[in-house]
User: Fold this.
Amino acid sequence: MRKILGVFMMMFILLVTGAHESSAASSTYTVKKGDSLYAISRAYNVSVANLKSWNNLKSNIIHPNQKLTIQAGQKPASKPSTPSRADSDKVVREFTVSASAYTANCNGCSGITKTGINLKRNPHLKVIAVDPKVIKLGTRVHVEGYGYAIAGDIGGAIKGNKIDVFIPTKSEAYKWGRKNVKIKILE
Assistant:
């Protein structure tokens, strides 16, 4: 009887200790030049809100060499990705906007969005510039003729129901031109 009680006691201690250690564990990520909370959140498959909460951040601004806590169990993905149909299909709002295109490869362009996404390093991402009074930064959207994207930038001429879609090359941006398109705000 003592042996059985001893075995149960050891199992209980191991179970409690192991559970406590796994919930308390976290990893640290060192911010590199050109990183953004959005890109880091996509890489670790966590939300920007969680990153901000875990690290007591009041804004989306991060700096090179800054240490960020990532909760345990989050594995880095291969690279940041554009939101897809699988992420969410629930449409919160739908309306028509005037859409033009922009590129990160112009004179005076840094290629870094308002949310910190480096478009020169990530030309495959679909990002739109928005008026944050109309579409909140970080919102997932579907733009007719462009696809699923993230509202990750703003622009001086982007006021009201206007957006700019990021296109990697100037020639493709010129081809896009300006057109009225339907935009769906996704949950």
